[in-house]
Structure to design on (469 residues):
């Protein structure tokens, strides 16, 4: 029995000696490695003896790693945590345990708090969309009865925005115009319609965040009095019709077209804005309020009390804006009241009757005895600059029709001969594509020199003013 025990003990001792020799040989090989082989070579060589349990499946044997990869791996390991005191991670040690500990500490050591914070996908304190503190107010742009508009800057992406801050009254709630504008614009995506970026709702305010556009058509015309360059008028009108055609096809009426609500970017892109009075129109037509559209751009049917209207309501405004861009003054600048506004319209287009306007006598405010009987004139007699632009008078006359059903639609107007000299590609653009992506389409300089040939401003009516209401 004792001999058997001694034999087993001797065998164990022999195996231990053999293992010790193997380890000794391994350490000898490591000591003979070149000095620039680095920490990675040490660990990889040790792993070939399977003394760093579980690590050999993570890093490949040394001879399978290309030379350029060795250097890159070494830099990564040696510069793992810049916020910790440097340690001698590549020190060659002849202790198996120390070598494995060094490797594990370099790959599994604790990250510093700063590293963890930077690697987090989104910090709780970082600006986010939909939050009031995500936007910085830069300056006030304007103020209305229920809203103030500011130029602002997004803290999320650094872009300029327009902040329409709507004041909420506790007893009245959110103004219906704000709800209507937000709900309509959320579904409208077109290059010629202002883009709604974000909506922020707090107890005191509702803020609509729009793309920032630096000016509007009213300011643009004020800066360039006497009428705009004919080519610029054409591009602005094309964009206006393009935006209107888009919303009209979706059964939406703007109902407040005027130069102040047409934004102009620094590249000349025109964008429909201020949808506070806009309505989604169902079929058949509902009865709507006749207190829509600023007076100068309000069609005669609405002025006479009609509450049943369609997309032709907006098309009258297009005709007024078209004339104003060419002539340099408002087409029908009423100075007193609705009666005065109608008189100015009838002076040019003629006082309507049942022959020229079927059903006019049934309108609430139409009393034939109250109006002077005028005969219709050629538009060039009222606005002489129309005669200097090919097909401009014809297009204006088809837009400025007293009888609503005779007015040209936005889609039909885009096909009018007035636009025949524009590049055909303009009619092939997708909704979100700008017309200025088409080669050779650009605004012309507004020097005023090209417009002098058009002669004096109109003188057909009394009290004509170039001031904006």
């Amino acid at each position: 029995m004792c001999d058997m025990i001694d034999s087993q003990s001797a065998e164990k001792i022999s195996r231990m000696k053999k293992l010790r020799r193997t380890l000794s040989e391994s350490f000898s090989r490591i000591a003979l490695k070149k000095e620039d082989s680095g920490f990675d070579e040490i660990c990889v060589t040790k792993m070939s003896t399977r003394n760093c349990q579980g690590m050999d499946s993570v890093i490949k044997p040394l001879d399978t790693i290309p030379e350029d990869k060795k250097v890159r791996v070494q830099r990564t390991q040696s510069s793992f945590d810049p916020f910790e005191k440097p340690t001698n991670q590549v020190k060659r040690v002849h202790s198996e345990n120390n070598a494995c500990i060094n490797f594990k500490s370099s790959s599994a050591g604790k990250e510093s708090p700063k590293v963890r914070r930077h690697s987090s996908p989104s910090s709780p304190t970082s600006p986010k969309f939909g939050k009031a503190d995500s936007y910085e107010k830069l300056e006030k742009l304007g103020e209305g009865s229920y809203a103030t508009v500011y130029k602002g800057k997004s803290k999320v992406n650094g872009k300029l925005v327009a902040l329409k801050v709507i004041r909420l009254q506790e007893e009245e709630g959110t103004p219906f115009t704000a709800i209507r504008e937000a709900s309509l614009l959320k579904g409208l995506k077109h290059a010629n319609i202002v883009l709604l970026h974000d909506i922020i709702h707090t107890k005191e305010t509702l803020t609509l965040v729009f793309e920032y556009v630096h000016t509007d058509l009213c300011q643009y015309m004020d800066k360039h009095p006497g009428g705009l360059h004919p080519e610029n008028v054409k591009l602005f009108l094309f964009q206006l019709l393009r935006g209107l055609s888009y919303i009209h096809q979706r059964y939406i009426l703007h109902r407040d077209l005027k130069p102040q609500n047409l934004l102009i970017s620094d590249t000349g892109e025109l964008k429909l804005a201020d949808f506070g009075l806009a309505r989604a129109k169902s079929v058949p037509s509902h009865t709507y309020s006749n207190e829509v559209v600023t007076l100068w751009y309000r069609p005669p049917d609405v002025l006479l009390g009609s509450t049943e209207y369609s997309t032709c309501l907006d098309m009258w405004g297009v005709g007024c804006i078209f004339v104003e861009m060419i002539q340099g003054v408002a087409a029908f600048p009423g100075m007193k009241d609705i009666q005065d506004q109608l008189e100015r319209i009838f002076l040019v287009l003629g006082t309507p009757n049942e022959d020229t306007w079927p059903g006019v006598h049934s309108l609430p405010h139409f009393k034939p005895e109250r109006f002077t009987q005028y005969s219709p004139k050629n538009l060039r007699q009222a606005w002489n600059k129309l005669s200097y632009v090919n097909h401009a008078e014809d297009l204006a006359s088809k837009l400025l029709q007293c009888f609503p059903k005779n007015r040209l639609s936005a889609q039909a107007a885009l096909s009018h001969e007035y636009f025949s000299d524009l590049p055909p590609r303009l009619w092939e653009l997708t909704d979100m594509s700008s017309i200025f992506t088409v080669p050779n389409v650009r605004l012309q300089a507004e020097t005023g020199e090209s417009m002098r040939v058009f002669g004096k401003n109109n003188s057909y009516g009394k009290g004509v003013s170039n001031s904006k209401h």
Q: What stands out?
A: The mean pLDDT is 75.
